[in-house]
Specification:
homodimer, about 475 residues, Alpha-Beta Plaits, 2 domains, 9-stranded mixed β-sheet, 5-stranded antiparallel β-sheet, 13 helices, about 20% strand, Peptidase_M20_dimer (chains A, B), hydrolase activity, acting on carbon-nitrogen (but not peptide) bonds, in linear amidines (chains A, B), hydrolase (chains A, B)
Chain lengths: ~475, ~475
């Protein structure tokens, strides 16, 4: 059978680029092979296998992962990825950050810019089998389905494996997509040292495992027409709302602070409230208050670390240090919260507005800022219509949402249209050996990914052919 | 000059035991020697000298103390105490807990039960020069003044040095007055092991330094007619109210709890508030709430220790453990607070009344209970009239108060009338090398102590002579 040409649709061609509603009958009704997808996913989890679940009955699927970036296990998974994608007809390129780009040619040959999907094969030291891995394996399954049905796309289609997304071994998350996007200098990334380790740098380890490519890690050297990423949600929203697919329109902004409250140590028995400067009571009020303001502003506020001194039952703490992590879909919301908390409300709290006491002081430092990311409408709409087009999925099963966590897609969206597809994970648990997504949900997500890439390819073709018969570039 | 007989006062004798208002003209106008008192206090601080103050200009007085109970330094101070009190005409008895009783005979000879003052010569490892030491040294100064003026009391007068009041070396505070009162078994006290040390027991160390007496440590073997204790306040109330003397009518009750809150770890970015069970937010609300209820009930509530897990900026804590120390002058107040907090309010807080979220659980354990102590009216009134009788002190300078911290007087009050006299300490600071009370305040306190012992002796005489010409016993 000859390759099916999916680049012809009189209906959609009339509407052009802005038509997200592609006639489903114009697209091949391609299905992913759920059994094959899951078998292959678990097969690759032999490299870097972690601890079994507490009540594991099938350790071949119920075992966590510990596949740190650029470890021997990661090398084995990479080797499998390169070999497999080559066997499926791809050209494979490795860049200077070890990012692997597997590209399947389109009808116009290898010249067009590929439409990509991708994610990462590295895991947390006590991670699970789905975070990142599912996205890459769904890409490989996409290639298998395309080969199986001899699908012909207008432009090349690629699957990318990004290096060290977790930041667990080399301590910058998403560092290699960051270098690709031109947001993190290559030298800084190469010089990153292994956490708590031997002093080995990322460059050392790339070289050691044979993944220090010669192609520059850059959106200019390896351009992308679009980037779609399938990922587990890592949160409980889809599960709670009983929806199967999340279409991600952006990643919320977050900022991390350290707040230090300085009061005065005092004997708990002999010091009346009026003579106290209780650093812990004040910190407790700040933590409770930051929650209240986050509720009011549809944001999140969390404290995960708190330490105090001197730490004695009968001594009022003189100093407390705590972390504050605030998140919201818009940077402006965080600007507002930051200003309100640090300029006004926390000041009022240390001035002991509520009960008389001695005034305390506080200082705050910004530890990390991650601006809000808005994905591009073109990719969001394509992914959404792909999800809604699946026969078994009604639109009620699809939810447009914001990602709470960062992903490589944050960096790709700086340089090309991007969106993500989320599937449910049990109890919202991730970064945990017992992270789990059902085979059905994994397959549904992979199908939405496949359909998104096909649709995007088709829309590019429509767009290009309104003004020209040639594909872009 | 012959001994002055202070046991005759026709005015007071008419009124009998219940007359606290003794005609001041009937009492010898005895003054303590401030220079001598302070010189002797600092002299004895050569044994167990600690770290100098940060801005010390005179290290001979501006140095902290580190005189752990039954150490070589403590032995040296004890030897000085025994030698000095003997030289001032006392009989010295050491009991099985190393408590030292120095007794000066009265007019009726050594047979009457003595009226005591006393405190302790041991200190915290990083303690100051006043806590405990002032009370013993003021007793020695009392003996000096009595000898100097050849004062004759109706009954014997004693000065007691209690062993290991601090509980810093052998981990039960006030352990030796506790044994004396029959509240702590001798065997348990003797078996106490040195904190973080060699395994040496209290009995070992008493024996080693030669202070394991043969007289039983017991209120029956060594009875007291009364116990007055001069002490620094260890709190800021007198200083804040600009008063020089506190007359202590009791010691507040306290209870120590450990509260454990169990929620669920969750990603701070991907978990909406409705899906969280945030153990730290809940603990923060509990801490803030326990403060509020304490304010309403004229009590104290303090958290000095808090630990959480897992302790990562972007993970909602799944477990928090914190200490809760509540104090009030009455046991009933603590009963109320305990019931309200643990049966109702904390339950409401973990049920996420305030913002929707998953329910958490909490458990609480009682770590320590110290009931309220009420001192006896006879001693309180005597000390109060003594303070008010001092020419330079108007009654505005005297405050009746409750002690926030425990003292040996808590145990003596179980077996004999007791009260305490407090003097101001700078900023309420104690258990700190920079603990400080002015020479004037120390001398004023010592004068009130001296006058209290003299007045109590006189009142006993009045009381005994209403029904009999013999002293009690």
């Amino acid at each position: 059978m000859s390759r099916r040409d999916i680049s012809s649709s009189s209906h959609a061609r009339k509407e052009g680029w802005k038509t997200w509603e592609i006639d489903d009958n114009d697209l091949p009704q391609l299905k992913v092979n759920q059994t094959r997808l899951m078998a292959e996913l678990h097969h690759t989890c032999q490299w870097g296998s972690g601890v079994p679940w507490k009540d594991a009955t099938d350790p071949s699927t119920q075992t966590g992962m510990s596949r740190l970036a650029l470890s021997d296990a990661d090398k084995a998974a990479r080797d499998w990825f390169v070999e497999t994608t080559r066997s499926l007809g791809c050209d494979v390129t490795v860049d200077a950050m070890g990012n692997i780009f597997a590209v399947r040619p389109g009808s116009y040959g290898p010249k067009g810019i590929p439409t990509y999907c991708g994610s990462h094969l590295d895991t947390q030291p006590a991670g699970g089998r789905y975070d990142g891995i599912l996205g890459v394996l769904a890409g490989v399954e996409m290639l298998r389905v395309m080969k199986e049905h001899d699908v012909e796309t207008a432009y090349p289609v690629g699957v990318v494996n990004w290096t060290n997304e977790e930041g667990a071994r080399f301590p910058i998350s998403m560092v290699s997509s960051g270098v690709w996007a031109g947001e993190i200098p290559l030298e800084r990334a190469h010089a990153l040292k292994e956490v708590g380790g031997s002093g080995a740098t990322m460059r050392d380890e790339l070289e050691r495992i044979g993944y220090l490519g010669t192609v520059p890690a850059s959106y200019e050297a390896m351009p992308m027409a679009a980037h779609f990423e399938l990922h587990i949600e890592q949160g409980p929203i889809l599960e709670a709302e009983n929806r199967r697919i999340g279409i991600v329109e952006g990643v919320q902004a977050y900022r991390w602070y350290t707040v230090e409250v300085v009061g005065r140590e005092a004997h708990t028995g002999t010091t009346p409230f009026s003579a106290r400067a209780d650093a812990l009571l004040t910190a407790a009020r700040m933590i409770a208050y930051s929650h209240e303001i986050a509720v009011r502003k549809y944001a999140l506020a969390s404290t995960g670390i708190l330490s105090l001194s001197p730490g004695s039952v009968n001594t009022v703490p003189g100093k407390v240090t705590f972390s504050l992590d605030i998140r919201a879909p818009f940077d402006k919301t965080l600007d507002d919260i930051e200003r309100t908390l640090f300029q006004f409300d926390f000041r009022q709290i240390v001035s002991s507005e509520y009960t008389k006491g001695r005034e305390l002081s506080f200082t705050w430092t910004v530890d990390s800022v991650s601006p809000a990311t808005r994905f591009q409408k073109s990719c969001i709409e394509v992914a959404k219509s792909a999800a809604e087009s699946l026969g078994k999925e009604s639109s009620r099963n699809v939810r447009v949402m914001t990602s709470g966590a960062g992903h490589d897609s944050v960096y790709t969206s700086r340089r090309c249209p991007t969106s993500m597809i989320f599937v449910r994970c049990r109890d919202g648990v991730s970064h945990n050996p017992e992270e789990y997504a059902s085979p059905e949900d994994c397959a549904t997500g992979a199908e939405v990914l496949l359909q998104s890439v096909l649709r995007y390819d088709r829309l590019r073709y429509f767009k290009d052919n309104k003004s020209s018969d040639k594909p872009i570039r």
